[in-house]
Amino acid sequence: MKIDRLVSIIMILLEKKRISAQKLADMFEVSRRTIYRDLEAISMAGIPVSATPGPSGGIEIMSQYKIDKKVFSRDDLSALLLGLNSLPKTLRSSEVEHTLAKLKSLVPEDQAEDIEIRTSHVLIDLSPWFGERNVNHNLEIIKAALEESRLISFTYIDGHSTKSERKAEVYQLVLKGRDWYVQTFCLTKNDFRLFRLSRMAELTLLDEKFLPRKYQKPVLDFEETAKKLQTFIKLRVHKSILDRLLEFCDFDCIKADGAEYYLAEYPFIERDYYYDMLLSFGDKCECMEPPHVREELKKRIERLGRVYGIRKSRTC
User: Fold this and answer.
1) Cβ atoms within 10 Å, residue 200
2) Cβ atoms 15, 105 nearer than 8 A
3) What's the confidence (pLDDT) of residue 128?
4) pTM of whole model > 0.70?
5) pLDDT of residue 1
6) Residue 183: predicted pLDDT
7) Cα 89 from Cα 80, distance rounded (Å)
């Protein structure tokens, strides 16, 4: 008999006036007999549960029974409900739904409408506008590994496109920006490693279990390191990509250059990722300074041209 299921049933009965035993059984994925045993245990604990037969009957807590719903303030309940409702769908589970039911049962009737309005002030949807990486399958495997302390194996493709076979203990799922990561102890490297789920292939949940070791949290803040490596380059961009530019630059760093163009101070690090980002702007962006970045862009454009059979033009 699960204590969390008993508590969940109590909270659901407090929230609803009446619910059938079959609905409770379906909700918790157990038999009706199990639900009746749970209800008997709840009654023995001193909470008066009654059953009404017939088509409109069901299970309910006697109306005379009262519970203090002032454990949390209105702001507390609003914040908790907002946080749980904002969980990505990929992480929502029956446990989360049961917790939501518990919290909602604590909302006083005279504050229910106000709290509902407050929780609707913010909507968090982490799914992309177009398309979606197929990480759901990997997420399910990782969650199972976390719950059961089982090892995983996978092929990993790193940032330099190098493939390697890995075996690891799983310790934490991480959502950083728009990407999912998993913090592990990599048995292949004998050290803690953070892996991006989109770079994991042939992910397998192994039967072998592990004894969790002292956990080392992943380092997720590289702002200070980035500041040391970062410089600012001067770009001239067409107004049609201004919205994309604002994803990387503060508006204070952008000035009008005529009616069609802008000059921008763009944060830049000497890495392929940043050069690729500049090239993704196409002919709507020109690097003005410094000269070495401009020259490197020209070389990369020439190499791209050779891929498509475009020869460098000769001057007479």
Assistant:
1) 21
2) yes
3) 62
4) no
5) 45
6) 93
7) 17
- Residues in the chain, how many? 316
Q: Measured between alpha carbons, how far is 245 from 257 in angstroms, rounded to an integer?
A: 15
Q: What is the model's pLDDT at position 125?
A: 66
The three state secondary structure string of the chain is: CCHHHHHHHHHHHHHCCCECHHHHHHHHCCCHHHHHHHHHHHHHCCCCEEEECCCCCEEEECCCCCCCCCCCCHHHHHHHHHHHHCCCCCCCCHHHHHHHHHHHHCCCHHHHHHHHHHHCCCCCCCCCCCCCCCCHHHHHHHHHHHHHCEEEEEEEECCCCCEEEEEEEEEEEEEECCEEEEEEEECCCCEEEEEEHHHEEEEEEEEEECCCCCCCCCCCCCHHHHHHHCEEEEEEEEHHHHHHHCCCCCHHHEEEECCCEEEEEEEECCCHHHHHHHHHCHHHEEEEECHHHHHHHHHHHHHHHHHCCCCCCCCC
295 Rama class: left (phi>0) / alpha (psi -120 to 50) / beta? alpha
CB 80 within 8 A of CB 72: yes
Determine the pLDDT at residue 134: 63
Rounded Cα–Cα distance for residues 91 and 89 (Å): 5
Distance CA 39, CA 157 (A): 52
Q: Which tokens in the block code for residue 39?
A: 């209800």
Q: What is the pLDDT of residue 161?
A: 83
Which has the closest alpha carbon to 150: 216, 212, 213, 202?
Answer: 212
148-167 b/e (C-beta count within 10 Å ≥ 16 → b): eebbbbbebeeeeeeeeebe
Point out the residues of the chain with pLDDT beneath 70.
1-4, 15-17, 63-74, 76-78, 80-108, 120-134, 221-223, 225-226, 311-316
Under a CB-based contact definition with an 8 Å cutoff, are residues 209 and 217 in contact?
no
